[in-house]
Amino acid sequence: AQSVTQPDIHITVSEGASLELRCNYSYGATPYLFWYVQSPGQGLQLLLKYFSGDTLVQGIKGFEAEFKRSQSSFNLRKPSVHWSDAAEYFCAVGDFTGGGNKLTFGTGTQLKVEL
Amino acid sequence: EAGVTQFPSHSVIEKGQTVTLRCDPISGHDNLYWYRRVMGKEIKFLLHFVKESKQDESGMPNNRFLAERTGGTYSTLKVQPAELEDSGVYFCASSQKIMETQYFGPGTRLLVL
Asked: Most CB atoms closer than 10 Å: which of A4, B10, B44, B50?
């Protein structure tokens, strides 16, 4: 069965600093990978996704992620964090076998931004 | 275009009571999903509808949970009778086609006392 690990439960960065959130997955086939963000009081919003092709994926709000098959990783990065980026971030792997569409999520990383 | 909406946003009930959660997907989305996040743990898949049919209900925890999607539009998730461990945030999502992005609603926060 597939699984996703987000090793960092909480991360604090200063505004303007760079950010990297880690995600490791376990999946038998070619993974379909996602990053979602949940701001306080909001639903989950898709930041970016990887299905195939270029392993460096650009998303919304200046985020990017790199798929590294050899490391089973899909880390999320942003060169300069803004205070509005404070939120909880979720990495997920999609399973489309059997005609379904099931996301398996990591436990999330809570990002705090210091001004 | 309206997003996925969920009602109620919060619900507090006592153990043994019944609660019904509602989800309205994005118009035209045939695929509807329910997920749950319990006590700060990971978000877990519950089930997947394609129109009014259950495509995958492998994540439903037990027979106290009943999901329906009559007419292939909105869906309800009923918990009867509710137990303490059912507390958490219930998310609904929808997608136009399978293998397309799932769009999530804001969630319903359920507290069972």
From this structure: A4
